Amino acid sequence: MSDTSSTASSIVSGTSTPNTTPFSTSPTASSIITFVDLKPCRTLIPKQWREQSVRRVAPGEIREAAVSLSQAFAADDLAQYLLPEETNDLTKWKLHIDIMTYIVAAHCYSGLVMTSGLDYEGVALWMPPGKTMDDWWTIMRSGMWKLYYQLSSEGRRRYYDEMLPLLHRTKQEIMGDRDDDCYYLVYIGTKPRCRGQGYGKRLINDMLDKADAENRAVYLESSNIINNGYYRQFGFEEKREVYLERGSEPVLLTIMVREPGTWGPMRTSGPVPRLSAPLTRHLQHSHHHHQHHHHHYHLDPHVLKQKLFGKRV
Q1: What integer pLDDT is reported at residue 271 of this predicted model?
Q2: For a tag on the chain, would you pick the N or C end, based on fewer CB atoms within 10 A?
């Protein structure tokens, strides 16, 4: 170390004008620190985004949320299963983003799209009780109708003829008379570089608070067996395994359900569930039980084909 003097500059909170304070580290050396008081940093990031750990995504944010989910599910077996004949990586990626954009849009218009983080680090798509996206307005406005023409012939068979009927039938069988009276976690994903930072936990617990307060169950389909243990920490239990089998290797989907008030390592507190739901609500949902269809993508293939082609096929 030489004994030459030096000048250091440090930005801290202090007086409104620069202030220099000399100090000596040795009899022969001295340094000067300059204290500079800066005004509070101004930002264009909306205040509500910075203050809320979980917030609802608006229609103007559909694309950003869709790109985030596209990244989260880029290596997902189910996502790749639906694009069997696409060999060009760029074409496949663009179609993957299109699919996610349509799905996010449909949930934004008729369900719930929630995000955590300032840059859509975590995104969750929910279908609340009594909601459906099989209506003509949602199908057209979200762009879901385009998917029929964008998928390959085999992709259409896998999507419309295999997956949707299987998921619809399975949910009805497992939930029974609660099929239209539960919260459905359709998608949840975190950007790969942001995993392990609590974004998913916040998104799940945010809706579990609401489900517990309403004494309602939560339903999901896990397309990655590694995630099953994660969901168990919130109180979810495996109910059934189903397979998509049109590919060279079957794709496993694990059906999981969480009953209200179930605790786990990731879910140690929350609203106390009501002892019973209002009778009028049960009567209302029982009446509409066979009118609403909740799928992984919430589109009945026959309904879509009928609306696109004017007849049931």
Answers
A1: 64
A2: N
**pLDDT of the residue at 81:** 96
Q: CA 69 to CA 223: how far, in whole Å?
A: 14
Which distant-in-sequence residues (6+ apart) come within 8 Å of 53 by Cβ?
A: 116, 202, 206
pLDDT for residue 279:
33
Residue type, 122: G
In angstroms, the CA 229 to CA 225 distance is 8
Report the share of the chain in percent with pLDDT over 90.
63
pTM (predicted TM-score): 0.74
Nearest to 146 by CA among 299, 312, 311, 295: 299
Handedness of CA 51, 57, 61, 64 (dihedral sign): positive
- Determine the distance from the C-alpha atom of residue 168 to the mean position of all C-alpha atoms in its chain, rounded to a whole number: 20
- pLDDT tens digit sequence for 195-205: 999 999 999 99
Whether 275 contacts 104, CB under 8 Å: no
Tell me 4's DSSP state. Answer: -
What is the phi-psi region of residue 196: left when phi exceeds 0, alpha when psi lies from -120 to 50, beta otherwise? left
Show the tokens assigned to 172.
Answer: 């009805």
> What are the pLDDT digits (tens) for 204-252?
999 999 999 999 999 999 999 999 999 999 999 999 999 999 999 999 9
Q: How far apart are CA 178 and CA 99, in angstroms?
A: 29
Distance CA 70, CA 101 (A): 9
